[in-house]
Design brief:
Length: about 375
């Protein structure tokens, strides 16, 4: 009888959702829908003759993302071991399709989307998902041999190199750097020698700098980052208006819908710079609340990773948590003028289906890993 009760309790635990992880995500998605409408209504009215265009689409994206979260929550994460290579190959094919088929869609001077009728998809988001699954699988099966250069370091860097080459052809330098950062941290957590990782940094940092200064638009972005007020109508335009938005918001903000910078002053107010609109309309209090929700998500993700008994689950949980955390830090850093301008969305808040879909799927996988560990953490 006791044994049966224990099984029932474990079954209930497996069926339950991690509310400490789910609620912050749902709050952010809800806030995102409100702020996307506030930041995009004027733009949508001018471009599409209806102020609800981006609001309706984000509502659909959120519903699809919620379905992905629920599915991934109940799909056993260990099954990804047998799917790792099909996922890896599919991600490469999608990145190639952007470049070599007529389905590739260009925006902002970069070819980063696949378009199927009214539906657009960004393969680089799936690439990050695929790379995390692959790294977790590969490192978990190699065990102590990760210390060897030809086993623990070189194969993973070669796989990263394929992703990086395909993404740089779009070109998307920021996403390539993000993949490299996630890979470096996961290799460190997996137990790859620090000497190998440090040597890679000594090679990659100068290479990254060379790539930046040899593309005119990247060089201009770097210069405007150093002193955006010197280029207020050119390369520094985005940062200047982003900082003006935060300054106008003050402590309590101007109120939802009452922001000024979104009115054709701040570019991409509903995507890359939605945090600036939040700073203006919700003020410092709103900004701190948003950061607090992200901290809870990051804490829960790391807690799940730390308490997961198997290496594969630990690395998957850590990889997705780190990926979301890096996106948050980079996006906020850009909007606050702490990092050079990079078109990277703010997880769960920015407008966009691909990012929201894969981030919510990642949360579902985190919940599945946490429940499967058999512990209450």
């Amino acid at each position: 009888m006791k044994k049966e009760t224990g099984k029932n309790r474990q079954g209930l635990q497996m069926a339950a959702y991690d509310l400490r992880l789910l609620f912050p995500v749902l709050f952010l998605v809800g806030i995102g829908i409100v702020m996307i409408y506030s930041s995009s209504s004027a733009l949508a009215l001018e471009k599409y003759k209806t102020d609800y265009n981006f609001l309706v689409k984000q509502g659909i994206f959120s519903a699809v993302g919620m379905v992905a979260l629920v599915f991934c929550r109940h799909f056993p994460y260990r099954f990804y071991r047998s799917l790792v290579y099909p996922i890896l190959v599919l991600s490469w094919l999608l990145l190639l399709a952007v470049l070599v088929t007529g389905l590739g869609h260009s925006a902002g001077g970069a070819l980063r989307w696949l378009r199927f009728g009214f539906f657009s998809f960004q393969p680089s988001e799936f690439a990050r998902f695929a790379l995390i699954i692959y790294l977790a699988y590969s490192m978990s099966k190699k065990g102590s041999r990760l210390k060897e250069f030809s086993v623990g370091f070189l194969p993973h860097v070669l796989i990263l190199g394929i992703f990086t080459a395909l993404i740089m052809l779009q070109p998307d330098f920021g996403s390539a750097v993000m993949l490299a950062a996630v890979t470096w941290i996961m290799l460190f957590l997996g137990g790859v020698r620090l000497w190998h990782l440090g040597s890679a940094l000594l090679v990659l940092l100068p290479a990254g700098y060379f790539i930046m200064i040899n593309a005119h638009y990247r060089f201009v972005r770097l210069m405007s980052f150093m002193d955006p007020w010197q280029y207020p109508t050119d390369a520094g335009y985005q940062i200047v208006h982003s900082l003006m938005a935060f300054g106008t918001g003050g402590l309590w903000g101007t109120g939802i819908g009452k922001g000024y910078q979104k009115l054709f002053y701040l570019p991409e107010p509903h995507t890359d710079f939605i945090f600036s609109v939040i700073g203006e309309e919700l003020g410092l209090v709103g900004v701190i609340a948003i950061i607090g929700l992200y901290i809870i998500i990051f804490w829960r993700g790391l807690t799940i990773a730390r308490t997961t008994p198997d290496t594969f689950g630990m690395l998957v949980a850590a990889g997705f948590t780190i990926s979301i955390g890096l996106q948050v830090c980079v996006n906020m850093g850009v909007t606050l003028g702490l990092l050079p301008t990079k078109g990277l969305s703010l997880p769960f808040l920015s407008y966009g289906g691909s990012s929201l879909l894969f981030n919510m799927a990642s949360v579902g996988i985190l919940m599945n890993i946490g429940a499967s560990s058999g512990k209450r953490v």
